[in-house]
Amino acid sequence: MKLALVLTAAALLLGGCSSTPENTDDQGYEEANKGRYQHDKDFRPDDNPDAESEPVPRSEPMSVNGNRPVYSVNGKTYRVVMPPANYSETGTASWYGMKFHGHDTASGEEYNVYRFTAAHKTLPIPSYVRVTRLDNKKSVVVKVNDRGPFHEDRIIDLSYAAARKLGVDISGTAPVRIDLLKAPLTQKVLWVQVSALADRNAAEVQKKELKQALAPMAWPVEIYASNKNNVNLHRVRIGPVPEGEPLQQLLSRLRQLSIDKPVLLTEPQL
């Protein structure tokens, strides 16, 4: 997702979260998310009502939807990492606005320009960080619930509310330091493989049917393609899904669909 900047910073409108996270084995991602990109350029709100309160860092489980271990954008691969408690990073912050307001973030939460949130390429979701602007010493606490900005020279995309508090809505970008306040609780998750098909079209059909049949659970259903000994396989997998009740509910639903021998995997690329 990316920023809505003032006219004097129009050149900075190119970048950040507006790049669609790609999964080379999920050709439907862009189609499913095209509503987020109905505007050619990002823009600020027409009004400036008071923002919500800054979030209070708390322990939360890792987002199932938001923590794909490895993902690619514009040909570059990113790997989500669990940072040390003293994690700190310096670089350039940018921001994103109304182009994405009301649409889902990577975590599945709805993006709201008036909440104190942010996008980061590799921090686990959700994480809580303090962002300090280095040239004016202003700081803000934000909840990382999205992916981006996908520019080499930027390390974090701030929501409009957070950018406004630091003055980044005026400057467009600014030098900042990020200090980790709270990372999510780790939890074991699994991927459920339901088939390995040679025919890509057949895999796409099964993927679509599974998404419909599993509603309203809404677990990600993806196709992982591989070639071994000149044999192409398209593995249809559901996940990540947390162990415990969520996994058991999914397996029960699969049995209802006559899929009674799925393969459970601890890594998506196995």
What does this structure look like?
The protein is built from five helices and twelve strands. It has two domains: 7-182, Barwin-like endoglucanases, CATH 2.40.40; 189-265, Sporulation related repeat (Alpha-Beta Plaits). The strands form three sheets. A six-stranded mixed beta barrel has the order 3-7-4-6-5-8. The longest helix has 15 residues, at 200-214. 16% of the residues lie in helices and 29% in strands. It is α+β, with helices and mostly antiparallel strands. It has helices at 29-32, 160-166, 168-171, 200-214, 245-256, and strands at 70-73, 76-79, 88-95, 117-119, 127-133, 139-146, 156-158, 174-182, 189-197, 221-228, 231-242, 263-265.
Task: Lay out the secondary structure.
Layout (H helix, E strand, L loop, with lengths): L28 H4 L37 E4 L2 E4 L8 E8 L21 E3 L7 E7 L5 E8 L9 E3 L1 H7 L1 H4 L2 E9 L6 E9 L2 H15 L6 E8 L2 E12 L2 H12 L6 E3 L5
Parallel strand pairs: 3-7, 4-6
Antiparallel strand pairs: 1-2, 3-8, 4-7, 5-6, 5-8, 9-11, 9-12, 10-11
Q: What's the CATH C level of the largest domain?
A: Mainly Beta
Can you summarize the main beta sheet? 6 strands, mixed, barrel
Helical content (DSSP H or I, runs of 4+)? 10-25%
- Please tally the β strands and state the result: 12
Short description:
The protein has helices spanning 29-32, 160-166, 168-171, 200-214, 245-256; strands at 70-73, 76-79, 88-95, 117-119, 127-133, 139-146, 156-158, 174-182, 189-197, 221-228, 231-242, 263-265.
Key features?
270 residues, alpha+beta, Barwin-like endoglucanases, Alpha-Beta Plaits, 2 domains, six-stranded mixed β-barrel, four-stranded antiparallel β-sheet, 5 helices, 12 strands, elongated, disordered N terminus
